[in-house]
Amino acid sequence: MFKKIIKKVIVAATLACMAGAVAATAAACNIETDHPQVKISVEFNDQSYELEYVLYRNMYPNTVRHFIELTENGYYNDMLVHDYRSNDWFSGGYTYNPAEYRTASDANLYADYLETHSKEQEYMALFNGGKLTPSVYSDSVYDANGVQQLKTDSALPTLIGEFKNNINQVIEKGALSAEQGTLKMFYYEKQSTGKVHVTPTSDQVIWNADYKTNCATSIFSLQVGTSSSYSAADYCVFGKMESTAALTELINAIEDYYDASSASSHTAEDVTVDKLVEIFSAETEDKGTEYDFTLPDLPIIIKTITVTKY
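Given the sequence above, the corresponding C-alpha cells read:
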C-alpha cells in the first residue's frame, strides 16, 4: 500500500512537471523578441494581398509596442488607405463603410465622409481605457526629496518620436532607411512650441522635449515607391518587408484596374486630423490640423493586421 501511494505521488509530480513545461512553452510563444512580425491583409477589387513585415523593437521599442497594442485591439481593421498615388500610402485614421463611401460623389462629400468615419474617438477610448502604454507626459512634480517625477495623470495620447531628427532621441543599434517596403509611423507637422516629458525607456525620462516631434497617434504609412518625401530622419521607420513580391502584385493590380477602366480618384480637401490630440497645443487650441487626401474611386482597404510573431 505504501509503495502504491509513493508511486501515485511520483506520477502526480511528473504530470505537474509536464504541465509546467507545457505552460512555460506556451508562455515562451509570447516572449517579446527583437523582431516581431505582422501580416497586413489588404483588399482591392475583391482580392486579398498579404503584406508581411518584420518590426524592429530593438531600435524603436515604443513605436513597435504602440503599433502592436493598436493591432491587438483590432483598431486597424477595415481601414481606408489614402494618398495612394504617392510613394507612401497612409492609413490608420478612417474606417471603410461600403454603402456610404460609394455614395460620396465629390470632394466635399469625401471630406465629410472622412471626418464622419474618423477613428479618433475610438483611439481616445483605447487610451483612456488603459489599452495604450503612455510615453509622453505634459507635466511633472517634485517629490519630498526634491526629485522631479512624472505626473502620471498628465499622460498624453501621443507617441514618443523615435527618429533621427528628434534631437532628444538616440536610435540604438543603427537605424532603418526609408525604402520601398518599409513601414513608418507618421507625425503630422505641428506648429506648437510646447514642451513635454518623454520616456524612451522604463528607467529614463527626458524633460522638456518638443511636443511637435512627440505627437504621433495611429497614422502609419506603407512606402510603396523607391523614394519618399518622408525620410527616416523625420518619421519613424520601424518595419520592413523581407520580400516585396505581394506589394508589387498589389501595385500592379491597382495600375491595371485604373488603366482599363474609367475610374478616378477624389481629393478630399480640408480634412481635420488629430482634433482631440491638438487640445494640448496652445497655438491651434482644439481645431486640429487640416490636410488634403487623395482617395481611389475603388477603395484600398486594410482588412486586418495580425501579429504573427511577438
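The radius of gyration is 23 Å. Try to locate this feature in the C-alpha cell string yourself.
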